[in-house]
Amino acid sequence: MSLLTKSGGILGPIATVLGYVMTGIFAVLVAMNIPNIGLSIVLFTIVIYMVMFPLTYRQQKFSRMTPLMNPELNAIREKYKGKSDQASVQRMNQETQQIYAKYGVNPAGSCIQLVVQMLILFPLYRVIMNVPAYVEQVKDVFTELASKLLTTAGAEKYLTGIASSIQATTITKEFTQNTIIDTLYKFRPDNWTALAKQFPDLSDVISKTEKTIGAMNNFLGLNIANTPMNYIKEHASVWFVIGAILVPVLAALTQWVSVKVSMAGNPQAEGSDQMAGTMKMMNNIMPLMSAFFCLTLPVGMGIYWIMSAVVRMVQTIFINRMLEKQDMEEILRKNMEKNKKKMEKKAGVTGNQIAQNAAINTRKVETTSRAKRMANASTGLDESAVTRKGNVRPGSLAEKANMVADYNEKHRKK
Question: Distance (Å, rounded) from C-alpha 229 to C-alpha 232?
Fold first, then answer.
C-alpha cells in the first residue's frame, strides 16, 4: 500500500515510473554500501535530464534556427499581407512549412517537447519530496516504529498536533501506518527529540530509526529533510547556518549562469528591445525565485534545483558546440533532399515545384538586398563585403546566416 502523498491523477503514473528509477538508483547505492538519499537525488537528476536530452536538443535547435529562418518567414508574411482568402492562406501555410522543412525544425514539435518536459518535471518534485512513497527501502526504515505508534495511546493526537508545522497534512485525514511514515519522514532533529520524550517506552526504536534515516538524509553535513530556513532559525552552529545559506545561494547562482549560457550567442534575444528586455528580466527574476523556494523547501529540493541547473547548463554548452560545428549548407541540402523525397510521394508534386517554392520564399528579401547593393555600387561601395560579411566573428550565428544567404542566392541562380 503506497503512501497517501503519492501523486494521483494524470501525473500519478509518471511519478510512479520515476519512482522506479529512483528505487533502482538507491538500490545500486545500497549495494555499494552508500545508502544516501541526497546522492540518489543527484544521480536521479542526471539520469532524468539525460533521458530528456533528445527533447532538449530539438527545442534548442529550433531556438538557434529561428533567427536564420526569420528573414524568409517575414518575406512570406509580407508577400501574403492583407490576403485572407482560403487559397492565399493555404499557399502561405504551405510555403511556411517548406521553410521549416528546409531548416529541419518543427515549431509544433517544440511546443510538444515543452509540454512533455513539464509533465516529467512536476512528478519529479513529488518523488523527491516524498521519497518513502516511492522507494520501498527507505519506507522500510520507518515500518517498525510506525507500527508501534499506530497502537500506542496518544500517538494519533500527538502526531496530528504537529502535522501542520511540518507540512504533513495526510495524517490529519487518516491515521494509518503509511500516514505515520509520511509524517516521520518530515521530522527535524528537534521533532525526534520531542517524540522520544513523549513516548519513552519507544525511545530505543525511535533512536534507531532517527539514526538510520539521519545517515540516509545526510548530504554534506545537512539533513535533506530539513529546510535552510529552519537551520537558520534553530541551529547555533555557524557552519550549519553557512551550509544552509549556501543552498539557496547556489540555486540562484546556477540558475543565473544557466540562463546566461542559454542566451549566449543567440541573436534572437538581441533581435528587439522588447525581447532583450524580457530576457533580461527573466535572467534577474528566475534566480531570485530559485533562492526563495530553496530557502523554504527541504534541502533535498535545493539539491535537485542546483543539479538541474548545472545539467541544463552543460547540455546547452554541448548542444551549442554541436550546432556550431555543423555545416549549414550541408544541413540545408540534406533537409531539402529529405523534404523533396517526402513531397514527391504525394500526388502532383514534383522536385522542380518544390525547388521553385523554396526559392520564391526569399525573393523579396533578396530583392531588397539587391537594391541596396545597386545603391552602394553607385557610390563605389561593396555592400556584400562591408555590411553582410564585415565584422563577423568566425563560427558565430551571424556567419552562418551569411552562409545561408549565399546558399539561397547560389541555388536561386541555378
Answer: 5
The set of residues, in sequence order, having a beta carbon less than 8 Å from that of 227 and lying 6+ positions away, is: 295, 296, 297, 298, 299
Closest CA to 178 of 208, 155, 204, 147: 147
Instruction: Find, among 260, 279, 270, the residue nearest to 397 by Cα.
Output: 270
Q: Residues in the chain, how many?
A: 414
What is the Cα–Cα distance from 293 to 69, expressed in whole angstroms?
38
Q: Which grid coordinates are listed for 325?
A: 560545428
Helix, coil or strand: residue 298: coil
What pLDDT digit, counting tens, does each position of 31-57 carry?
Answer: 999 999 999 999 998 998 888 888 788
Task: Look at residue 43 and give its three-state secondary structure.
Answer: helix
- Candidates 260, 246, 252, 255; CA nearest to 308 is 255
| Spatial contact of 362 and 74, defined as CB atoms under 8 Å apart | no
Contact at 8 Å (CB) between 24 and 285?
no
Map grid coordinates 535572467 to a residue.
283
| Chain segment 329-342, per-residue pLDDT in tens | 777 777 777 767 76
The residue written with cell numbers 520507518 in the block is: 142
Angle, CA 263 vertex, CA 258 and CA 267 arms, to 5°? 170
CA atoms within 13 A on the CB side of 257: 17
**pTM summary value:** 0.71
Buried b (16+ CB within 10 A) or exposed e, 347-371: eeeeeeebeebbbebbebbbeebee
User: How many CB atoms neighbour CB 242 within 10 A?
Assistant: 11
Which parts of 199-327 fold into alpha helices (H)?
203-217, 228-234, 238-263, 273-296, 299-325
Sign of CA dihedral 372, 377, 378, 379: positive
Note every long-range contact of 12-21, with CB atoms under 8 Å and residues 24 or more positions apart, other chains counting: 12/123, 14/119, 14/120, 14/123, 15/123, 15/126, 15/127, 15/134, 16/134, 18/48, 18/120, 18/123, 18/124, 18/127, 18/134, 19/127, 19/133, 19/134, 19/135, 20/134, 21/47, 21/48
